[in-house]
Automatic annotation (TrEMBL):
It comes from the Eukaryota. Keywords: Membrane, Transferase, Transmembrane, Transmembrane helix. Gene3D superfamilies: Spore Coat Polysaccharide Biosynthesis Protein SpsA, Chain A. GO terms for molecular function: glycosyltransferase activity. This is Glycosyltransferase family 8 protein. InterPro entries: Glyco_trans_8, GNT1/Glycosyltrans_8, Nucleotide-diphossugar_trans. Pfam families: Glyco_transf_8.
């Protein structure tokens, strides 16, 4: 029977009602739903839902299905890079002594790419020691104290309890900075990014990436930001952090995603090379790594030990080596990059570090 004939038969009998069958009718009338039957039915339903969600989820996104197709450079060579300006700055932060060597190493890598912008390090005086501030700023950062902005809600991850202080970046307008690129201390710079200072937008960031089902998302990671300073914007944000509805655990990153969600310019991944990208798509990372501007050490931090504990300067090399096997050795190349950057930093600024070590640690 052909396909058409089969369909005709199905249509023909779709409304068919059988003749009365007393035995069948009696059996049906006696049927009752038992707890076991309900459980089995619910189990079947949930399994169908699970299988449907699994089937839908197997369609990969373009980034999970990354292919090396575009051979052109990120920037148009015909577009001029903006001239140096005292109104531009690269900014980082120091909220704990444990990140001092990371800030110093980041500063050295920025010096190597010859950025025309000034370097400013915001820090919390009550949370950091004179020794740590000295070490961190040894590579040319101008240390700028800020007031801590406490979390407005409970539930913030304990490592993020000081992160709302990042909102003070907008207050740097008062020292003459009009546009800035912010970098978390756990980043390294590999290429000049002065082109960002010519952006006409108020706020820009790189989309985030997760290792779970969320994958590549429209929300951004707050470890690298471009922004135009405004004390008015700061005042508005501070007034709303306690009343806005957003998940508390990710602190300022969660709030900023809600505050700038629809306005934020999404930047290319090269400006925030989150190590989670490599974990999720080795092919994408391989292409990205060839011309990357910033690597973000999210999944492994070569300068920390244990639970975000400080590593003494004379033990950093050993600590880096102890991290090589993490994640199955996936990040060995990136750890070697950090080790090389630290070795250069220590060689060039070793005397300054020695002087800093003599300062108070409290």
């Amino acid at each position: 029977m052909g396909q058409f004939s089969k369909l005709s038969v199905l249509r023909r009998y779709i409304d068919y009602v059988p003749l009365w069958n007393e035995q069948l009718s009696t059996a049906k009338s006696k049927r009752r739903w038992t707890p076991g039957g309900i459980a089995i039915g619910l189990s079947i339903f949930l399994n169908v839902v699970f299988l449907w969600r699994w089937w839908v989820g197997t369609t990969p996104t373009a980034l999970d299905n990354y292919q090396s197709l575009n051979v052109y450079s990120l920037l148009d060579p015909a577009v001029a890079i903006p001239a140096a300006s005292s109104e531009n700055a690269v900014v980082t932060s120091l909220y704990t002594d444990a990140f001092a060597t990371a800030v110093a190493t980041l500063g050295h890598t920025i010096n190597k790419v010859n950025s025309s912008a000034s370097k400013v390090m915001i820090y919390l005086p009550e949370k950091t020691s004179p020794r740590a501030v000295c070490i961190a700023s040894a590579t040319g950062w101008s240390a700028y104290p800020i007031a801590r902005i406490p979390p407005p809600h409970p539930g913030v991850q304990r490592h993020f309890l000081d992160q709302y202080s990042k909102l003070q970046l907008w207050d740097l307008e008062k020292i003459g900075i009009k546009s800035l690129v912010y970098l978390d201390a756990d980043t390294l710079v590999f290429q000049n990014f002065d082109e960002l200072f010519s952006l006409p937008y108020r706020f820009a960031a790189v989309p985030d990436v997760f290792l779970d089902d969320r994958g590549f998302v429209a929300g951004f990671n707050a470890g690298m930001l471009f922004l135009r300073t405004s004390r008015e914007v700061l005042k508005d944000m501070v007034a709303k952090i306690a009343t806005a509805n957003y998940p508390a655990e990710d602190a300022e990153q969660s709030f900023l995603n809600h505050y700038f969600g629809k306005e934020a310019l999404r930047l290319p991944f090269t400006y925030n090379g989150n190590l989670a990208i490599k974990k999720r798509s080795k092919a994408m990372w391989a292409d990205l790594r060839e011309s990357i501007h910033v690597v973000h050490y999210t999944l492994v931090k070569p300068f920390l030990q244990g639970d975000y504990a400080e590593v003494p300067i004379n033990k950093l090399e050993k600590n880096i080596n102890s991290k090589m096997g993490k994640h199955g050795g996936l990040f060995a190349d990136e750890l070697n990059d950090w080790a090389e950057a630290w070795a250069e930093t220590k060689e060039k600024y070793g005397e300054a570090f020695a002087e800093c070590e003599a300062l108070s640690s409290s």
